[in-house]
Amino acid sequence: MRSDRSPLALKLAAFGGLLFLHLPILLIFLYAFTTEERSYQFPPPGLTTKWFAVAWFDRPDIWPPLYLSLKVAAISTVMALILGTFCAAAMSRARFFGRDQITLLVLLPIALPGVITGMSLRSAFGVMDIPFSTWTIVLGHATFCIVIVYNNAVARFRRLSGGILEASADLGANSFQTFRHVLLPNLGSALLAGGMLAFALSFDEVIVTTFTAGQQSTLPIWMLNELVRPRQRPVTNVVAIVVFAATFLPILAAYYLTRGGSETAGMGK
Amino acid sequence: MTSAVEFRSVSRHFGPVRAVDGVDLTIAEGSFFAMLGPSGSGKTTCLRLISGFEQPSAGAIRIFGEDVSRVPPHLRNVNTVFQDYALFPHLNVRDNVAYGLMVKGVGRGPRHAQAEEMLALVKLDGYGDRKPAQLSGGQRQRVALARALVNRPRVLLLDEPLGALDLKLREAMQDELKALQHRLGLTFVFVTHDQHEALSMADHLAVFNEGKIAQIGTPQDIYDRPATRFVADFVGSSNVLPPALTRALGGPEAWASLRPEAVRLAAAGPVTGPVTALRYLGVGTRVAVRLGETEVAALIPAGQPLPAEGEIVALAFDPSALHVMEGAR
Amino acid sequence: MSGAVLPARGPGDRLTGLFWRRPWLLLLLLIAPPLLWLGVVYMGSLAALLLQSFYSIDEFSGIVVPEFTLKTYAELFRAQNLDIILRTVTMAAAVTLACAALAFPIAYFAARYAKGPWKAAFYLGVMLPLWSSYLVKVYAWKLILAKEGILGWAAERTHTGFVIDGLLSIPGLQGSSLSTSPIGTFLVFVYIWLPYMILPMQAALERVPQSMLEASADLGATSRQTFRSVILPLALPGVVAGSIFTFSLTLGDYIIPQIIGNSANFIGMAVYQLQGTAGNIPLAAAFAVVPIGIMLVYLWLAKRAGAFDAL
User: Fold this and answer.
1) Which of C131, C177, C219 has the highest number of chain A CBs within 10 A, making it the mutation to test binding with A?
2) Residues forming a β-bridge with B300
3) What is the share, in percent, of chain B residues with pLDDT greater than 70?
4) Interface residues on A facing B, Cβ-Cβ cutoff 8 A
5) CA distance A64 to C176
6) What domains are defined for chain A?
7) Nearest CB to C131; choose among A169, A228, A247
8) pLDDT digits (tens, 9 = 90+) for C112-135
9) Which pLDDT value is given to residue C206?
């Protein structure tokens, strides 16, 4: 009596749910072209492309946050790549006391709400009298990016047959040669995927950042200010498109890099 | 003759588990040596002790007279054919084979030439550009072999090298391996749980049981004169006779083994019993006769008259075929 | 023929030898940096948070008094603060329920009926919104819910504006538009956290073997009975796992209620305002400990329901 055809109602509900997830984002694109800059009037009274030019030429306040976001995301990603890969490598090598605790420790920064991570870092900076800087932002971002890289790397380590590392040593390669010629080529795409996801996560992060940035603005903080006190609304949409692309493209690329395994990227977030 | 590998009371413990327990072993240069035993008997650990992936908890290991206790795997001039072959999935066949030369700093041209030469040796010429995933199990096995041999190791280790192949391929590879070893004059050490494979390929073998060597010798030694009941049982079709039966059959009161080929059926004799089963084997028929608590098998060559099941028969044999086991357990 | 032992060629070989003789050394070198980072930076910060929550603030000078006291925690029990906690927990519970209801058809369809390219499409269809910019998604809803926005326009065109007006006149849910009403806050929370519910649910449903469904049918169960007595109980761990995300994320969020809603206070907002403009770091820290406490209880309950097998 089991059929491979789904009930119509279920199909409708499932596709309706997916539409619900995707349609709102399209509006961001539409409103970037509206001629109305003081309200969110629908349908837009007219369409124009001038806001892209305005954002590029007339809004110097966009550039410093963009640079800062890129800088923070780049540094955090590199740190997360190193720390996450180290951790995954160690965890794949041996079963040892405290493994589960370490897994929990890696997961915690992303499992607990951002406001707790943010407030904790804020408290620590307060207790230790550390002034806010780019590095205080990086400290927070790298912390929650580690788990993204870790998840990708650990899945690949699991799939990698341990035999090939032994085979490499057996054939005369020392640890560094094994890393360079066997481990890195096999781990590469997983690390690239993890790195891109970490970059996307950092570039977009706002909650932890508001606690660790002090007076500085990253692009998401700039956007948040625009949302609370809008000036030229369509310009915000133009920036939103940029931010969207900066998170959308890496996840798409990461998906294609790790496709075909049980390890497909992204489950970690 | 130099010994290629030498174990001096070597032990390897994993926590409370004694995987290898006080093993003494000498493998002669140029021999085809098999380590035979059930899983968990310590044979694979012994192989890994030679390659260096395990370190002895006690004892010393020498390879061609050199103590390797402090030598990591990559500096041992010993190569392994792994059970699952462990080919590098990201490299093509040629680069897989040339890997050992590459990490030793051999230039691209010469190492590729040598790799092709080795591929020809294992009859895989023309396969250099393929990826391991595009090969069959048997082909992968040959690549693994070529990859190990290209380094001109002093000892080649093979870990259940034929385990993943189907029966027909396995038999073909057995002959090929044997021929290859003969041609290269290399010392081969291979691990297997398959007694037929061990007996037919090796010129010497060690039978492992619970981390210890139960017996070491030529296939003939092991087959004809098993040292213990375990060896007699594991190596195969020998009859194991308890002390009372040995005595009744005219031997001393001790455990003994008796090959079925040496047993004949007779009209009368000191011990008689009913035929419990007949199994046709092609070259002959295996007749099982119940003698008290023990079942004794006789191999009757084809063409000779066979008893019926249930018929009471007596056994006769050449007394020299009766092998009394020492230290029988 | 070369010897049985090759000479070491340089520091790389010697170091490899050292790692081989002392396997724990390499392990230690690998695990130490991430462990130090997470241990010092993260656990250290959590400890600082906990520490500060036991400090208090001098009411006249506004300076933090670094002495142990439970006074700050006692302040949480003031009516206005209890209100905030209650409002946040209610919202988190409502959001979790709505997410579970919306996620189920998608997860069920993806796990059971979607095959081949459709399966990949469904996966991406959930994954992309999950990873897309959080702020952009919130912003999109500001556009949708604004009085002059697409929902208002659609209601006007279909003459269903009275539905929205009716909703907005319910006591407790009032607002001048959906974007300034708690309904808006709720909708956006559901939208943003929905993928976090779909993925674990789908994972749990995918583990229901087809043979089990067939066995149930063989035993004479109707599809409705199979669904209720086999699929639902087996999907429950996934629902619980997903609810951990939706519940925890709603508890801690402060951007959404700040941008959409009637600016009623939530825990996250309280933390942000207290540490920022108010400068009352001890109370902010104490507030931040509240979600941790709630989540610990929640996790303990979830663990008893066997939800962690589905993570």
Assistant:
1) C131
2) B285
3) 98
4) 161, 163-164, 166-174, 177, 181-182, 185-186
5) 36
6) 18-49 (no CATH), 61-258 (1.10.3720.10)
7) A247
8) 887 778 888 888 888 888 888 888
9) 81
